[in-house]
Design brief:
mainly alpha; about 50 residues; about 45% helix; elongated
Length: about 50
């Protein structure tokens, strides 16, 4: 089984540099950043549909 770890950073905190460095390792896959505001907006829209 593969372990999954999440690293969360704020804008201008070096998270893009860290992603680039981690992707240089053959056993690590770092995914692109997903703005948290987009995720929150989708969750809110889903919640509003349920009410």
């Amino acid at each position: 089984m593969t372990d999954v770890h999440y690293i969360i950073g704020l804008g201008r905190s070096g998270s893009t540099l860290l992603t680039t460095m981690l992707n240089g390792h053959s056993k690590i896959k770092a995914i692109p950043e997903i703005p948290i505001a987009i995720l929150k907006k989708k969750k809110l829209a889903q919640y509003q549909k349920e009410i």
